[in-house]
Amino acid sequence: MSVVEDIRVAPISVSLAHNVGVSKDELASASGVPRERLERGAELTYEDGMAIYAALERLTGDPYVGLHVGAGFRMDQLGVVGPAIAHAADLHAGLEVLVRLVRLVIRHAQLELAHEPGEGGLLYTMPELRTRHGVDIIFAAALTAARESTDRYLVPTTIDFQIDEPPEPKVYDRFFGVRPRWGQPDCRLFFSEADLALPMRGADPSLVALLTDHAPELVWGGDPGGPRVSSLESAFRAALDEGEPTLSATARHLGVSERTLQRRLREHETTFGDLRAELLCKHAKELLRDEDLTIDEIASRLGYGKRSAFDRAFRRWTGATPAAYRAAATSGD
């Protein structure tokens, strides 16, 4: 599955359409995305997002609607996201929170916190160069939140976009306070080290910890007892793809702290070790049905340095060797 196909967006993000005077009913009608899928608790696909961006542009007649949606961001929108940023200790901590929570609102978003000499901030890689609206919303909303939370008219040190320069670049110059660079390898919203150290007006780290602990159910409206299985499995596989199927990496992809993930697993009477074995076994069975892959290749994909170690683990999980399982599973194909 490609990155684009795997992206899922929380419908809570649709609330930002109100910033440009578009209701959910109007958005559903214009985009073709059913009204019920725009409600809390559902999932929107990447293509749903593209249809929504196109509908927003048609409804408003504004080719820069993403920038204006983000610029109108209010701290009470997107559920827990705004308050968690506003109560961080300083701007750097606020951006860390933003990255974690954006990964909840947009699963598999290629957003991270990055640093260069004298500056740092958001680094974003667009999954496709189809439209500028998505990154415009993220960066404009982030800058709006930073300005409001620090009570300063912050001007980024660097603002880069992967998209080519638009017909009216001065729209961006005016909002960001600096001229962006267009057609760059990635998208960047960086601030000076001095600005990153600015305290937030509502600094309360203990409240941030509470908000982020409960962020998954607040954003997705899921089972308050724990993360949804599909989300947890997706987070584990993302960590596995990076070669780091650990508790820390899985929690990071899920958008929660290690402590929160451990607590949720305890509530479901399991451990990360048990979960890891279950998901590795499930993934191994899927891969073994693909006869184009050798068992050595499968072992490597699952993080085993030696085929013998994978054989022992698979026999422990299933009572059979990978070769015997493959033979039985593919005999009727």
CATH architecture heading of the largest domain: Alpha-Beta Complex
Number of helices: 18
How much strand? 5-15%
The average pLDDT is: 86
Parts with pLDDT < 50 across at least 5 consecutive residues = 223-230
Output the helix-strand order.
Answer: HEHEHHHHEEEHEHEHHHHHHHHHH
**End-to-end distance:** 22 Å
How are the strands ordered across the major sheet? 4-5-7-6
Rg over alpha carbons: 22 Å
Structure description:
With 333 residues, the chain is α+β, with helices and mostly antiparallel strands. It has three domains: 3-196, H-NOX domain (Alpha-Beta Complex), CATH 3.90.1520; 223-268; 270-333, Homeodomain-like (Arc Repressor Mutant, subunit A, Orthogonal Bundle), CATH 1.10.10.60. 53% of the residues lie in helices and 8% in strands. The chain has 18 helices and seven strands. The strands form two sheets. Strands 4-5-7-6 form a four-stranded antiparallel beta sheet. Strands 2-1-3 form a three-stranded antiparallel beta sheet. A hairpin with a 2-residue loop joins β4 (111-116) and β5 (119-124). α2 (24-31) packs across α3 (46-60), α6 (91-105) packs antiparallel against α7 and α13 (247-254) packs across α14. The model is unreliable at 223-230 (pLDDT under 50).
Compose a concise summary of this entry:
With 333 residues, the protein is of the alpha+beta class. It contains 18 helices and seven strands. The chain folds into three domains: 3-196, H-NOX domain (Alpha-Beta Complex), CATH 3.90.1520; 223-268; 270-333, Homeodomain-like (Arc Repressor Mutant, subunit A), CATH 1.10.10.60.
